């Protein structure tokens, strides 16, 4: 094959070296516009996992790199004069300049042609003359811009400013310094790259950057290679205690806003983009160089394993893109954590240290325990000491929690989940007894009903339960009594009104689809159908209607109290009636219950707050009330996290004991960033900015995630939904897997004989993805495919 490579950075050079070594008959040419010894930045970091792939792919490159590595295992968190150290992380770093030298040497050794200080020919010309064109031309990729209609890139410019520097101060670990300044909080990321120096990055929110006067050169046209000396002087003075008199070095060092790059596809015909041209991930979880070299390894393997370029590029994108997207999700979580650093500065130092270590959600409580059991033990002991009624040597999820005046024996909640199996008159059945009773016996601290509707017209489907009659309340009382008798769990009722999302089929018959017959009238703040042209256009509620619906909620609260429920939750989420009042997407009213005439969010919140206050007046004062909200609508112009903080604060002032933080389902136009624990950052923001307990919910399915969320202060309770449908005894099984047997997870006596995890089958570890081996006297090289994760 004839292969043209645009860009002589680590990604392009590594691909060239690997591919040429795999098949010396390939003709590979690299064009790089800079000199061979030009580089921007200082050190690059590799994880042990990445190095394992490099070692197996080309031992020659790995051995050359290994001789240069600065290695360390520890991460130090410096905060308020204290240092918290977590070990066992396994990092290696080297100077970027030396890495380029090694890769250039290897390329020369295997016969790759390299042109430096030379712009590549036009990409379309290369595409016509070569079998494959690899664009490894970086963040500002010309090739990506040329074929933007195909690649469909998105460039997300973020809220922090940062600057890369070097220092002759040699750090002994990866360092996080949290700096509380008169301008706001700043953070330092630092790590050694060899025996002579370290990379030093200062980062802060743009608001802090402006407050510190560091925007003095904003908009200035910089000369290539020029550094912002005025800002560097500021940093040298600010961080004098860190530098301890050592030299601060600049290399094209200026303030940068991190840009997250994503592309719908990475290929255009026989042109493929790699590394920063294709994707970026925030430096706080690893280097772009690491990702680019992993790309190169995967692409080289796919090319070698397939007979034609088209099949190889298809295989490459199929294999590599999900891996990168997973990394970008972790990087996004880490990036946003640092953007919101100011909301954590009042946390206890121990809580903060654990929080920063687990910010990406890739590193967890259990993962840290394997790496550094002493660190996790220290944090667990702090958490126990800060928790009233705590038990020693207890996983965080099994420590008790006081919700208002109600004591819960652990942090697990069975999330409200609509079952759609009520009798046609809204009556709960034996199914609900088994469903809720089974989850209670399965160990959860709090079991929540589905949304129980306040009126026949407030149902979502004919299968929804209600509490608008005394007969329904009596049926609920039977369920509540059984839960209390058979378990230590508490049980809560969630009440709501479907609003414009009512009169639809059962979920499995067609979610959000209108009934074929026997529809009832739906109502909403404004006459806007949920699915335009599909669902009914709701009738706009009058003031008289609002009074009646308020009374329906009050009557439901009274009946719920009489039924013996321990908790009452008001459903103000997911596009149902009260949620529709809160969102500007669904509330276009111009009266006092809308956002017109400058009323904004306060006007839209007025009716839900009135309903809450009316319910609170009849709900027993010793029993807590919570509120479920949608913290974002996932659409432009809808509710966002800043609104959610204000919504939570308003309900806190009204007397809510906790906020159950969900998101979305307000409009079918939503584009949620779905993934593991994807709604937890909203809970995190509300808990730490408003100062109210929160319940996190949304794809939380492992006990390790629950421990991590609770211990990091992102929520006080975790609502588990689908995992409880999969395993009604999820909480008790979580206790067994953690070898915990205590008051936070009490097995019913008849079941204790089953308190032993069944034996599992053997699973082999994943093998290396690509390995160069020699066979025969001729020393022919070939790639060996081995299945990996």
Strand and helix layout:
Layout: E1 2-6, H1 10-22, E2 27-32, E3 43-47, H2 48-57, H3 59-66, E4 70-72, E5 75-79, E6 82-86, E7 91-95, H4 96-110, E8 113-116, H5 123-129, E9 132-135, H6 142-146, H7 148-151, E10 153-167, E11 174-181, E12 184-194, E13 197-205, H8 206-211, H9 229-238, H10 240-243, E14 248-249, E15 256-263, E16 267-268, E17 271-273, H11 288-305, H12 309-339, H13 349-357, H14 365-371, H15 373-386, E18 401-403, E19 406-408, E20 412-414, H16 430-441, E21 446-453, H17 470-486, E22 490-496, H18 507-510, E23 523-524, E24 539-540, H19 543-563, E25 567-572, H20 577-582, H21 600-618, E26 625-630, H22 641-654, E27 658-662, H23 680-690, E28 694-697, H24 703-711, E29 717-720, H25 722-726, H26 730-737, E30 770-775, E31 780-785
Parallel strand pairs: 1-2, 1-9, 2-8, 5-11, 9-17, 20-21, 20-29, 21-22, 22-25, 23-24, 25-26, 26-27, 27-28, 28-29
Antiparallel strand pairs: 3-7, 4-7, 5-6, 10-13, 10-14, 10-15, 11-12, 12-13, 16-17, 18-19, 30-31
Helix pairs in contact: 1-4, 1-11, 2-3, 2-11, 3-4, 11-12, 14-15, 16-17, 17-19, 19-21, 21-22, 22-23
What do you see in this structure?
The strands form seven sheets. Strands 5, 6, 10, 11, 12, 13, 14 and 15 form an eight-stranded mixed sheet that branches. Strands 20-21-22-25-26-27-28-29 form an eight-stranded parallel barrel, surrounded by seven helices. A six-stranded mixed sheet has the order 8-2-1-9-17-16, with helices on both faces. The radius of gyration is 29 Å and the shape is globular. With 789 residues, it is an alpha/beta fold. The model is unreliable at 773-789 (pLDDT under 50). The two termini are 29 Å apart.
